Amino acid sequence: MAIVATAEADTFPKLLTRNAVLYGDLPAIRHKDLGIWQVWTWGEVLAEARALAIGLHRLGLERGDTIAIVGSNRPRLYWSMLAAQILGAIPVPVYADAVADELAYVLADAEVRLAAVEDQEQVDKILSVVARMPRLAEIVYDEPRGLRDYDHARLHPIDDLIRDGHEALAHDPTLGTWLDHEIEAGKGSDLSVILYTSGTTGRSKGVVLSALGCIEAASDTVAFDKLTERDEALAYLPPAWVGDHYLNYAQALVAGFSFACPENGDTVMQDMREIGPTFFFAPPRVLEQMLTRVMIRMEDASPLKRRLFHYFIDVARRNGECILNGDRVPPMGRLLYAIGTILVYGPLKNVLGLSRVRLAYTAGEAIGPELFSFYRSLGLNLKQFYGQTEAFLCLTAQPDGKILADSVGPAMPNVELRIADSGEIEFKSPGMFVGYFKDPAKTAEVLTTDGYVKTGDAGFFDPKTGQLKIIDRAKDVGRLNDGTLFAPKYIENKLKFYPNIREAVAFGDQRDFVCVMLNIDLAAVGSWAERNNVVYGSYQELAAHPLVCDMLARHVEEVNRSLVEEEVMAGAQIRRFLILHKELDADDGEVTRTQKVRRGFVTERYAALIEAFYDGSSEADISTEVTFEDGRRGVLSARVKIRDLETAPLARAVEEAA
Questions:
Q1: Residue 163 to residue 184: CA distance in whole angstroms
Q2: Residue that wins the pLDDT comparison between 602 and 201
Q3: End of a domain among 226, 253, 281?
Q4: Residue 348 region by backbone torsions, left for phi larger than 0, else alpha for psi between -120 and 50, else beta
Q5: Using one digit for the tens of pLDDT, what is the confidence trace for 519-553?
């Protein structure tokens, strides 16, 4: 087996080979299976990936072919990516919860030759639409449960491929030499992966990334954050999302650190407590959910514990961030914070699995300043970065000691950023995409004449700090009829800080005032209902309850009071709101697989409710098609109440009155 020097490692298989030499006995991947953590070292991962590469090659996978990776975070699916890249094939990760139609679109568009899937659910989805994938020849799977009686003419267990690959390598030394040559034949200019975008504005596009571009981008952030082979991460976000491929797969291979795969989506928090990662990433939605769980538990705690919790959280809000940033804090503030660390902050971080985290990031969408400050006040070194799939993620990041809630940091090393005359952010970066797969027209649309990529986001550099501030998606920023700036995401993030509000969609562009649709958080509001003896039988029934509407009205009024303090947004206070009768769902096309609202689709689907907002109606009837877990479709009908609100007086009006 050839030894690859660090400077020569311009593909992921070469990095894997290097890591097996440098860190061979150190953990590379962990996976909790049946309650027990399984561990593979870098040397073992290389051996498994090489054996699997033999198996995939025997099934016909060749250099330049595409292979779909469909499932959640499982070691054998990550090995399938590595095995494919060893052969010069191109992995195409797909979301595990994609419905059959979405799966068929991606696999057909990417011209997939072979699919590596997690379990029976994914096999069933592919077989139900296999006629729409003319190039798909074979399916390999990880979890055999439920597949014993299937026709295995085109189905193959990954474990069998690995076992047969090990046997073949043991009996035929020339196969090992051939694999070495395949790895060495890989070049930095090779296509490394195709990552499909979330599709907020329409059909997903396949973003093609090169091997060297991915490695150089990951190398910059590994150096920036001083990540080493001693760090540990938790891989719990979808492998099809650029964040997982970058933060775990690419950075782990570059730095040599290990990452752990949870047993399943329901055990993530427990598994995180057991692993104790040192490097942690969470999009704002996950941080919101973690905070919601904490608040629910505290509402169920004894009065003494509740008072203690809220008192020391208030201490943290006043002093925590200043202490974390190294700023001056009065001695009494430091003393109270130290007591709070023993009684509240330490135990709370332990419950959340954050005790060992030395570095945490959030990104994916804008985070509410209150939510961001809450975690930092506990002593968590939470920072923000800004990136895109087309950049292979990081364009900006916040350096330690220069953390601002309303900014995302200056440009990363080797990244060029500029603001176009229209206010749109444009970039050049080491990980810049090669293009959209089979779509030169779309590629040309996002490129400027001098080679910059248009992000579609509006922003500006703060002249005082030099950090980038994101306003919103450029196409979503608008104006009310009186000229007031309308930035829907900014308003929505303020609303989602409240644990009872899971999702919000704001409307107001070219209108006289702002209105919002809200989704309740079923766990938080359900807990409140239980404590207050509110009986309900479904999400729809709870969402329509008058007391729930009263509670959310108070949240919206508080948001209005915070908006009035910001001169630019003071005129964009919320005048009317409603609570939707159903949760916005990716299966219904209302949000993407990364839980971003597809604003255009939602506007079209709920046009009757939007019309009712602005014609003065107090209620409106709505019928919505829904997709059930088994793929069947139905219709959900409801009469939705619309609540009017008093807005807070503008500061200017108050001054004039005085």
A1: 24
A2: 602
A3: 281
A4: alpha
A5: 999 999 999 999 999 999 999 999 999 999 999 99
Q: Are residues 521 and 580 in contact, defined by beta-carbon separation less than 8 angstroms? A: no
3-state secondary structure of 473: strand
Residue 458 β-bridge partners: 424, 472
Query: How many angstroms separate the CA atoms of 147 and 368, rounded?
Result: 45
The CA distances from residue 261 to 30, 141, 230, 269, 596, in Å, are: 6, 17, 17, 12, 24
What is the pLDDT at residue 2? 38
What is the extent of the structural domain holding 63?
6-281
C-alpha–C-alpha distance, residues 54 and 183, integer Å? 13
Q: How many domains does the chain have?
A: 2
Please report, as a single letter, which amino acid is at residue 261.
C
Decide the pairing of beta strands 27-33 and 485-486: unpaired
Amino acid in position 391: A
| Residue 303, both tokens | 């009065």
Residues 362 and 277: their CA atoms lie apart, in Å, by 15
Instruction: Give me the helix-helix angle, 173-185 and 12-22, nearest 10°.
Output: 120
Strand order of the β-sheet with 468-473 is: 416-419, 424-428, 453-461, 468-473
Q: Which residues contact 458 (CB under 8 A, 6 or more apart)?
A: 422, 423, 424, 425, 470, 471, 472, 473, 474, 477
The pLDDT of residue 594 is: 82
Whose CA is closest to 410, among 461, 375, 451?
461
Long-range contacts of 297-306 (CB under 8 A, 24+ apart): 299/527, 299/528, 299/531, 300/527, 300/531
DSSP 396-444: EEPPTT---TT---SBPTT-EEEE-TTSEEEEE-TT---EETT-HHHHH
In the chain, % helix, strand, coil (3-state, to 5) comes to 45, 20, 35
238 domain residue, yes or no: yes
Query: Do the Cβ atoms of 186 and 88 come closer than 8 Å?
Result: yes
* Domain presence at residue 50: yes
CATH of the domain at 614: 3.30.300.30
Span 478-500, pLDDT tens digits: 899 999 989 898 899 889 878 89
Residue pLDDT, tens place only, 545-555: 999 999 999 99
Contact 516, 577 (CB under 8 A): yes
Residue pair 28/79 in contact by the 8 Å Cβ criterion: no
| Cα–Cα distance, 24 to 29 (Å, whole number) | 12
Q: Is residue 329 part of a domain?
A: no
Checking if the pLDDT of 226 tops 70, the result is yes
- The count of other CB atoms within 10 Å of the CB of residue 532 is 9
Degrees to nearest 5, angle at CA 570 with 565 and 574: 115
- Quick one: which H or E segment has residue 194? strand 191-196
Torsion of CA 157, 162, 167, 168, to 10 degrees: 100
- State the CATH number of the domain containing residue 33: 3.40.50.12780
Does an H or E element contain 459, and which?
strand 453-461
Question: Does residue 565 sit in helix, strand or coil?
Answer: coil
183 within domain boundaries: yes
Exposed, middle or buried by CB within 10 Å (0-12, 13-18, 19+), for 453? buried
Confidence of residue 6 (pLDDT cuts 50, 70, 90): very low
Using CA atoms, how far apart are residues 162 and 52, in angstroms rounded to an integer?
5
pTM summary value: 0.87
Q: Which of 281, 301, 323 is the last residue of a domain?
A: 281
Give percent of the chain with pLDDT exceeding 90: 81
